[in-house]
Design brief:
single chain; 331 residues; alpha/beta; 8-stranded parallel β-barrel; elongated
Length: 331
């Protein structure tokens, strides 16, 4: 009988295979590769933010926190930091893709970034921007784009720019159960018709237009509305006239909540870059990253890195045998 067959029929075969399972298999596997998943649970777990959560915050007059994210790392830190809402804004055209303005970014690109953000976000309510050209033609086009962002991007709601003229599209989208965040005041996708990135509502007529747009968005079914680049006094009065939350960006402290572009507020940009007046810089990510990368480069050049603790060991006998073999083959 072959040896392999005899082993199978030996008395040991009646013992559970688990008896011989290597100890390492029963423990957490040690990762020897260069990379590992970035995601990790927050130190303080929290419930997922829903529309009811946001409505409750608004009812209690507790400000709603919102920030942009454009990929897994930026969403991961925003979620861990306790943001109520995370917006995958079309500002990623400039801050993530190096474009000149938001009009360049495509729906497919927005969906890709939404998917990355949604993988990292476990608690915050996530919103995906509809980019220029994906919703203006007709309400049905807007609905089709919104469905793609929800279904493929895996976010909880969408945002689109515009007031009275976009009300039918907002109504169509919300009629199928997709939450919509409106956006009035300065609408960056329309900068060319607005004469650039200009403050809106600085005149009586302009302020009435902001209010009219906000009311139209509310009536169409939006759960909240962004007020961008509007005088603080006007934004505060508009907020009081609405029954839905307002999220301000450059619109003062009287809004129901605030949103900023993460790259701006974290200081993740080189010196000399233009930053809007309403931005407060809370960090210096660029400076810290620059120091770290420069230190790495310097240590590589001087061979200070990597040190022995950054390398993988090999048994001395295996190394000796390897050296012997290559020496014996040296001509």
């Amino acid at each position: 009988m072959p040896r392999a067959r005899s082993l199978l029929l030996s008395p040991l075969s009646s013992i559970s295979i688990a008896t011989f399972r290597p100890v390492a298999v029963l423990q957490t596997q040690i990762r020897y590769s260069s990379h590992s998943p970035l995601g990790s649970p927050p130190e303080t777990p929290r419930m997922r933010v829903t529309l009811d959560t946001l409505r409750s915050l608004h009812k209690k007059n507790e400000p709603i926190t919102m920030i942009t994210a454009h990929d897994f790392p930026s969403a991961h830190v925003a979620d861990h930091a306790g943001m109520d809402m995370i917006l995958v804004g079309d500002s990623l055209a400039m801050v993530a893709l190096g474009m000149q303005d938001t009009s360049e970014v495509l729906l497919e690109e927005m969906i890709l970034h939404c998917r990355s953000v949604s993988r990292a976000t476990k608690s915050a309510f996530t919103i995906g921007d509809l980019p220029m050209g994906s919703y203006e033609i007709a309400p049905e086009q807007a609905l089709q784009s919104a469905i793609r962002v929800i279904k493929e991007g895996r976010v909880q709601g969408i945002k689109l720019e515009g007031g009275t003229e976009m009300a039918p599209s907002i109504q169509r989208i919300t009629s199928v159960g997709i939450p919509v965040l409106g956006h009035v005041g300065l609408t960056p996708q329309r900068q060319n018709s607005l004469g650039g990135f200009r403050v809106q509502g600085k005149t009586t007529i302009g302020a009435l237009k902001v209010l009219e747009d906000a009311l139209a968005v509310q009536e169409a079914g939006a759960f909240a509305v962004v007020l961008e680049a509007v005088p603080a006094e006007i934004a505060s009065l508009v907020t009081k006239k609405l029954s839905i939350p307002t999220i301000g960006i450059g619109a003062g402290n009287g809004c129901s909540g605030q949103v900023l572009v993460q790259v701006d507020m974290s200081g993740n940009f080189p010196p000399g870059r233009f930053v809007p007046k309403f931005v407060k810089q809370y960090g210096n990510v660029w400076g810290e990253s620059m120091k770290a990368i420069q230190a790495y480069g310097s240590e590589v050049k001087s061979r200070a890195y990597p040190k022995p603790e950054h390398t993988y060991p090999i048994p001395a006998n295996e190394l000796s045998e390897f050296e012997r073999l290559i020496e014996s083959k040296t001509p």
